[in-house]
Structures are given as C-alpha cells and as structure tokens.
Amino acid sequence: MTTTLPFGTWPSPITAEQMASGGTRLGGAQLVGDEIWWTEGIATEGGRIAIVRSTGSGAEGAAPEVVLPAPYNARSRVHEYGGSAWTAVPAGFGDHGDADDHDSHEPPLVLFVDFASQRVHSLVPGHEPHPLTPVGPEVPSAHGPSLRWACPTPVTLEDGTREVWWICEDHTGGADGPRTDADGAPHVERYIAAVPLDGSAAEDPAAIRRVTPASRFVAAPALSPDGTRLAWISWEHPQMPWDGTLLHVAPLIDGQAGTGEIVAGATDVSVLQPAWLDEDTLLYLADDSGWWTPQRWSAEDGARPVLPGGSPHAEREFAGSLWMLGTIWMHVLDADRVLVQHGRDADALGVLTVSTGVVTDLDQPLTLISSIAVGEGGLLVIGGASPTAFPALHTARLTLDPAPALSPLHVLRSSRQDAPDPAALPAGESIEVPLAGGGVVHAIVYRPRQEGFAGQDGELPPFIARVHGGPTSHVPPVLSLPVAYYTSRGLGVVEVNYGGSTGHGRAYRDRLKGQWGVVDVQDTVAVMEHLVSAGIADGARLAIEGGSAGGWTTLACLTRTDTFAAGVSSFGVAELESFRSDTHDFESRYIDGLVGPYPERRDLYVERAPLSHVDELECPVLLLQGDEDRIVPPSQSEMFRDALAAKGIPHAYLLFEGEQHGFRQSATIIRATEAALSFYGQVLGFTPLDVPVLDLDRG
What are phi and psi of 431, to 5 degrees? Predict the structure, then answer.
C-alpha cells in the first residue's frame, strides 16, 4: 500500500542522530606484520582520529581494537587539509644492525602526528606516546604550530640504514626567523626530512636532517630500491598541484639529495606520484596528454608514455586532485606490473603491464576507490564505496597469473553499522546536460524515494542542488546518507560536477580557469533548468547547498540568478580580497588561476564576489560556520550575514564552537542537518517531521 503525502513531509527512518553518530570516518589501511590497521574518526570523542587494528575475528562489523589512546588525534595540519599522518614500522626499525633480528612477536613502533601540537610521536602499543620532533617557536602568521609534519615514508638507504622521512611544513623562517616574501605573504617552506626515532630531535632541532632542498610545496618522496636515487615532486605559487608540478630525480649522497634534474612537469603539466619499478626506471602520472596517465622515465631513455596510441584507457584519469598528501593511485606489484585506479565519473581498478601498456580491468563493484594497501600473497585492503554500499574497508586477493583476477570483496569494516533499510535509499542516475555554447555538464540525479510513499497527484518535488567543494574535485556515484536524508523525505537531490571538476580530463578541469563564479554558476543553473523542463523538479521550489568552494557557488547562484528559492552555505567563500589574505598558504594563490592575478585583476575579485551582489538577492539564506576554520575564516560568513541583515533578507547564522573546515562533532552535525531541513521546509512550503524549527532573522 502506498501512502500519499506532500513531498518533504514523508516520515523517514534516517535521522540526524544517525548521520552524526552511526557512521565512522574510515581512513586508509596499512598492513602491519600480519595485521590490518587503519584510522577511524570517533565523533563521540570530538571527532578525533584514532589508529585501530583488526581483532582478527573476520566478522563483518566486528569492532576493532583501538591502538592510539585518547586524547591523541592522528591528524596533520600540513596544507591545513593534512593527509597521511601515521605509519607503523617493525620493532628495532632504525636501530644499528638488522631489525629482522628482533623478536617477531615484539609490538611494532607506531609513528603519528598529534593534531593539537603537530609534533611527531612514537608509540609502542600499550604504552604512552613520546614526542620525536621539537616544539617550533611561536609564529603568529602560522595560526598554530610553526612546525608541522605529514606523509611518513619508511626507507632503506644504500648502506642498509633504515629511517623514516617526513614532509615538514616550516613557518619558522629558519636561521633568518619569521619574515614575509616579496609578495607580502608570510614565508613558508616545505622539505623532506629524516626524523630520528630515538627522540633526540624532540629537544634538539639540529638532529633533524633535511633530505631535499626547500620549496614552497613538496610531495611524494620515492627512494629507488637500491637506495641511491630519490624522486619527489614540487611546485611553487601560484600553481596548485593539479595545475603544474615538477618531478625531480637526484642522487642520494650521505642521506641528502645531491645535484639532480627535473625530468618531467611544467607550470602547465601536473605530475603526480613517482614510483620506482626498479633501480633505473621511474613510473609517474602526468596530464600532458590531457588526461592523467602513466609515464615512465629512465636516464637512458628519458620520459615516454606507457599507454600505446589508441589505447582504450588513454582518455581515463589515472589520478586526481592532490588535496591530501600521501594520496596514492597506483601500486607497483613487480618490475612490470602495477595496480592502477582509473576512470571518469566512477573509479575502476586494473593491472597495468608496463612493457605492453595494456590495462587488464578487474571485476569489482566499487565506483569510488579511496585507498588500497597491498600485502603478501596478493592480499589487498581496499577502501571504497558503490551506488548500493556505504564506504567500507574490504579485503580481497589479487592473482596475476595466468591473467590478473580479483576475488570477491569481503567487508572488513563498514563506515555504517546501522545502514538504513534499502527501501529508504535513493538510486542515482548519471546525466550529461548539453550546454548552450557546446559541451556538457555532468551531474547525478537522485529522485525522491522511499518505498510505500508517493507525492500528491500533480505535485512535483522540491529539488536541492548540491555543489561540491574544491572546486577542483568531484562527486562520484556512490551511496550517500546526506542525500538519502533528503530523498527519503520526498526531496530530490542533484549532485553537480560543474566545469572545473576532476574526472573528465584537463580540458574540462580548465573550463573554470579565470571563470570561477561564472562557469560553475552557469553549469549548475543549466542542470536545474534541465530538471524543470524534463518535468522532474518543481521550478518554483529549487534550493542549493554547498560547503567551502561549494558555498561560494551557492552564494554566487543566489546573488546572480533567480533560479533558486533558498540556499545553505557551509563555511562558504563570500568575498575574495580578504579571503586571499586571510586563508592559509596552500590556497592563498589558488584564486590567481580561478579568477585572475591580484592586484592586476582586482576588478574581477570585486565583481565576482557574492558579497558585492547582495542587493540582487531576494531569497532566504542559511549560513553554517566553524569558529576555528583557518581555510575559510568565520569573517566570510559574517560579512555575508551582516549584508543580509542590512537588507532585511530572512536568514540564520549558526557558528559552531571547536569546529574547523568541515564538521566532525556529533552535536554540530545534528544541529546543522536539522537546521537545514527546517530551513528548506519554511521556505519551500512543507512541514518536515520531528525537527526543531529554525528561527530566521528577518533583519
């Protein structure tokens, strides 16, 4: 029997409490001896990231054992977004002599960055952690610790010495002290460094050995198997890593990079993730063909593509945007075979034979692959999600001969132990919407769905456009509880991968260059107009929401078009001049490429800003913000709030204590989720069930 109710008023089994506390933020796995370890975000403990390990029961949903005790939080602030922040090495690693001489039953040594201090710590499970790096001097412009660490990389040098390298983000200015660069920005440098495991550097910074020269940004250190050559990538302002990077190869002399060469990359060619196939051959990913694809380099042959002309995989992305340091898209299996991720809208998994350039795709159901760990005997631990399954860690076995094949996936740990009834979950439809000037915009449509419920005769559903952050990012076709929270109540959702998104080649990505606030707005509006003309959405009840750069697009759509009746901006950018000076170093010149150089194109900075066009805004807005956000500071939301109040536009501004860029605390997630639903109900004309009414300020 089907119950007919107005869209937006359907009773739903999916609650804000479930979104806040029932899910687990899973990090990538590592194989530690014969155990599987990974990280989990614990919302009930302030969102801290804990290192955990499998209990070995093999039962789906079995709770792991916590290795990293509270209050420690394994999270890096390098680039503010962080990335890989921990590793584990065998007992005795780094000792003089052979670590293999140690008892195999001795617990491993865990190395991690603690979020509060940003110091590297060592931990023997069951004991208290000890710091390995010093406290940096206070530097006001750092807005936090002046020394930060990420991307631990265990290496073996030519003489057999074992040590761990880290990427250091250094705000101290070194011997010259804190200072500003020629452009007036605070001086920040980054380099790869070896941190002693004996704790000597905790009080003596001189014990840390720099391995590479300093650059504004460095990533992806890779030491050759014989320990003689080092590869890494770097880039400088105003490039972002998806714009252009340089691939360095240098001899390692007395533990430091000697005089080397740049073997690939440019200001307009993005090179990512170097990995050695053997002592002489380096594999990497580059987009000089228009797509991130595998390339190889050797001193004898130079740089050349791996995929042959006409390859069916030539127009696939084998990498993505490097927001998080330590992101890995390929894993060397042997000197001729590599496990690779590739795709467009969705991810696929395959084995690349380097000598032939042939990719053999593996049969598996995931459409988002977030991490892979490779172990002995073909063991894989794969993090990922699909249109019918929430993010989870899975185990599988990879066989290479006679042909690459993957066993069925087994769920090791799901992000949700309380997955809703499939009857309340939506089904996504990937669409391509033609654009008036040529080309298409990509989107995923989720119609209202809950078995047993339907809208009233003649009624079309309200639709919410969700625009992703970045903006150099994309939304894959996977099951999403925030989407289901809306669709199970009778609201439609469309995820818009506007021009500038990854997953569709460099030309699609570059559509946003100099056009932020234009192309993203036009593409989002085109998708909504398509849904209305196709009779899928109610054109009078369209809303939009997004966070960070998605918040910018949300506010730009609200102020520059009359398409939407309401919008929710989470920590969104509202104005560019102060944002450029207030934001963190990693993104401080991002706007140069998205809008134009400053101050030469100050006119664009002013003209594009949603704050400059509040007078054109007629619809209500909800603003959500964390008070500790260093990426998009509260001032951005507060300037827009003040402008809304001055014009008398109904609005609400919720500032959440202790939150940074993205909400992690249970109480915050509940409040923000329910506030948005109440807001939409008030503006779009429906009464949602069981949520507190959000008070709107009418100026």
Answer: -130, 160
